Amino acid sequence: MDSVTSTAESKKVADAVTRRETISITDNRTGKSYEIPITHGTIRAMDLRQVKVDANDFGLMSYDPAFNNTASCISRVSYIEGDKGILRYRGYPIEELAEKSTYIETAYLLLHGELPTEAQLKDWTYHVTHHTFIHESIKKFLDGFHYDAHPMGMMISTIAALSTFYHDAKEILNPESRQKQTFRLIGKMPTIAAFAYRHTLGMPFVYPDNDLRYPGNFLNMLFRTTEARYRPNPTLERALDVLFILHADHEQNCSANVIRGVGSSHVDPYSATAAAIAALYGPLHGGANEEVVRMLHEIGSVQKVPEFIKRVKAGEVKLMGFGHRIYKNYDPRARIIKRVAYEVFDLMGKNPLLEIALECERIALEDEYFVKRKLYPNVDFYTGLIYQSMGFPMTMFPVLFAIPRTSGWLAQWQEMLLDPEQKIARPRQIYLGYDTRSYVPMEKRS
Ligand code: ACO
After folding, report:
1. What proportion of the chain, given as a percentage, has pLDDT over 90?
2. pLDDT score for 2
3. 388 exposed, middle or buried (CB, 10 Å; 0-12, 13-18, 19+)?
4. Using CB atoms within 10 A of its CB, is residue 369 exposed (0-12), middle (13-18) or buried (19+)?
5. What is the DSSP annotation of 130-142?
6. What is the dihedral sign for C-alpha 431, 437, 442, 446?
7. Cβ-based neighbours of 268, under 8 Å, separated by 6 or more
8. H or E stretch at 112
9. In angstroms, what is the span from residue 322 Cα to ligand 1's centroid?
10. Ligand 1, atom 46: nearest CA belongs to which residue?
11. Would residue 324 show up in a list of annotated catalytic residues for this protein?
């Protein structure tokens, strides 16, 4: 399918030239003009290379720090239309999936491109469920972490360490091996996350219960104490399932770009996923949910919100959980999450920080600073409040993001591997450092 895609892309480029869907560039340094094809609203950066001052010139490059205006791949996994607040996985609107699907079904959809039949779903669920156990040695090195180690640090290291257990994972071009590692990664993420959590509490690890569904089993491994059989609360289990669906993929975000970049070296998927978790850990990405709750605690009361917003506008602090590179409208996930929040609060009692969050949102949505910059609540603005009400400590919030994002990461990783246009990711640079100079002996340095 993918080499056909590549041929189809070459044909599109040729057709674009025939139909004059092109852009003409005149190089004022030489007076020469170039006609460059436009496909999918994009020009190919390599087409700029022909723009040269003379035969020895390297050719024109584009400069785009932080990828503000660069498409790094062709993808069919998820689609965002930022101005309209649209998110779809494989064409299905996120609102419909949140209402009708489960995380495990959504993970199948992301990885396979289609919703599963009943038999396919049964088989997929069976395989993921039967890869939830971890090697006993992994427990030993989890035990080696300090009691207050951040669980994201534990996740990064433990997922990377899985590569030392599964040597077959190196066979990344073998579809059966990729499938196996996919079962393992999606199956084991909740187990490792729950074990990391129990380690911080000094509580014994709870083994997976394969009779429970994916989110219910996760709750079991986290919260089971003396009961013989853990029965997850159906409202909390469904809330977690919906949150997992909403977090499953988000096209070329920071961590998706990382798994593609690291995976492009053909390293095994455990090492590549560990790198993606590391990217997600940052406060500007998946770590933002933790930062939102810290911020709301710092604000302290509804009365103090205007003062805090003043500081935001003065550039002293950021309003965490606001703003997005792509969404210039309400993040559709935030809208669904707000509804889930009320369902959880009805059961667990209202989170006292909710009023502060609502006041921040109310002021920000009316204030010119935020309106002008199109800053709206993103996925992380309300998730922290839900997680807190469900009994999770703040340090677990980004972990709750990493678990479901694993399916999206693996879908992006696989798509990158199968794309014949992709190679090892290796950007160019503009070098503005020193020209050559001679080594200065110590006694001559000032
Ligand atoms: N609070 C205050 N001002 C903000 C915020 C914010 N949260 N976000 C952006 N701005 C301002 C910037 O200061 C900038 O203002 P300027 O034009 O006067 O310089 C303008 O809005 C544009 O912001 P950029 O930083 O250029 O936007 P970018 O696309 O690079 O960053 C990001 C997006 C990182 C999400 C940013 O909005 C941010 O830091 N938000 C807070 C952290 C957060 O919530 N992250 C989670 C994102 S969702 C996710 O990853 C799951």
Report:
1. 90
2. 45
3. buried
4. middle
5. TT----HHHHHHH
6. negative
7. 163, 166, 169, 170, 172, 181
8. helix 103-112
9. 7
10. 285
11. yes
